[in-house]
Amino acid sequence: MSTGRKKVIALSGGVGGAKLAHGLSKILPADDLLVVVNVGDDFEHMGLHVSPDIDTNMYTLSGFANPETGWGRVGESWNFIEVAKELGAEDWFSLGDKDLAIHVTRTHRLKQNHTLSDITNDLCRKVGIECRIVPVTDDPVRTIVTTDQGELAFQHYFVRERCNPAVTSIAFKGAEQARLHPIVEAWCESDELAGIIVCPSNPYLSVDPLLAIPGFRSMLSEISVPIVAVSPIVGGKAIKGPAAKMMAELDLEVSAVTVADHYKDFLSGIVIDNLDSPLSQEIEKLGMAVKVTDTIMKSDEGRAQLAKQTVDFLMSLSASDARNS
Amino acid sequence: MSTGRKKVIALSGGVGGAKLAHGLSKILPADDLLVVVNVGDDFEHMGLHVSPDIDTNMYTLSGFANPETGWGRVGESWNFIEVAKELGAEDWFSLGDKDLAIHVTRTHRLKQNHTLSDITNDLCRKVGIECRIVPVTDDPVRTIVTTDQGELAFQHYFVRERCNPAVTSIAFKGAEQARLHPIVEAWCESDELAGIIVCPSNPYLSVDPLLAIPGFRSMLSEISVPIVAVSPIVGGKAIKGPAAKMMAELDLEVSAVTVADHYKDFLSGIVIDNLDSPLSQEIEKLGMAVKVTDTIMKSDEGRAQLAKQTVDFLMSLSASDARNS
Fold it and tell me: Fewest C-beta in 10 Å: which of A129, B35, B70, B319?
């Protein structure tokens, strides 16, 4: 690895991804980290543009995240939504009073034709985040979940129906017309890039919508730097969210092996939990290196520790050495 | 007066007008009262459509009004605006967390091409208001105040600049293209209409934008039922707001006589305060009847009492008897 290569791209969805991104932001200089975030969960609620994964990353990296809910802000109040419900608003999606400031500001600026990425950048600066968080694209991509109850917009599946419907397939509406954000392209092409980390987010709901942007997945599989993932599946379960349930519904083995296999066209290595250490050999057969460690981030220190180990692992690899091709 | 005539139209601006409208709603059957409200104060803030006078009437008639501020809701919280300011929002206009539910709901429905009047009606029903509150028009009318500091949008003059600039003239942008709301037209033409009350609102900022809707003022001057106003000027002062200051700047005598004169083409009578009883003869010379009473509405009972006296006065008159023509 050349000493000039020190920048890291993190691909992130919501909670789990944001925790590792937070850890990365603690151990890397701000200029050396780019957090690329899913926008497939974005939707309009009460006429407001809501970007759940961007907000989760923004709140997590700035320390405003609510650790109990996994979404929204800590110390939130709910006066707006209580009155809105009295006025007839749909009651399945809660918007906190403080959280609302983000949605109103973003919606207002989008209407003025500012880009989602510029708005995100400005909001991040305002809340004191120094590294760059960027939506994977400024174009609209919307995750549609086909279930035994029909097609559901992502938030309808995820929040309104609480992931109860059985998933048969997932699509990313608008992805085909979307353009990878130029800053992501530029970082991927930079000779300062050391590697890419796929955060422990849901591969099907949070990372696939990133990979669905035309050219991005093939760019990753051809890139000259290593790419490592951190498995969100530990001991046959998802740390959080519906990944395990969905995998079973999609007839996939609920295992870190399945995650490794899902990304095998571009992964140089994968970080799996101590619990899954017996899976190492099977994963290595897929053509990638394996790092076994404690992947459950129980504290800010745990996030930084996993980030450090993941970056060290990344730096120890080269793209050509380990990648399956 | 025929016994079939029992309906009353009230023309209202903000605080003072809403207080009398509230009193009227206490003494008249809901089906017999139509409150026609100014929309010249409406504006967009942070991308949200705010209708201050509609909201003041809605909050006042439903009992949610904040009696201390004269705007917004009682028991309000301010978490949204605090965060919004941290994120860079303009800080001169405060939106409370509960109040925001109205603005977000209204803005969302306007974007879906619902009319302001339908939205207002639905919101009123939700907060338990039984009489009809209707914007004078569903078309955009915006009050522009020309001052010694240049042209100012109404809320910039009223809230941001706290009415400090000296007013030289007032215009109502969009009024020429606006259509009187059909329900106002229908009530004016109804043979059940007993009369019209001009509430004690600022004649220049709150009532003139109603009268600026094409055809409305001439309709009032030709209508076959009496019209009475309640003077917002008492003892040479405005009960609330910048009316007196503006009148002085416009070289008008700050007096109930000036108010009567301003409306003399359509008024059959005017209600003035006991303090102004010496002005009765001068006003009568303008060709209208005068009712002298306590017009300061210090309590809910005071509102109902003034409403009762105004309606009794209205019912005692006929259009042709007293109107100057």
Answer: B70
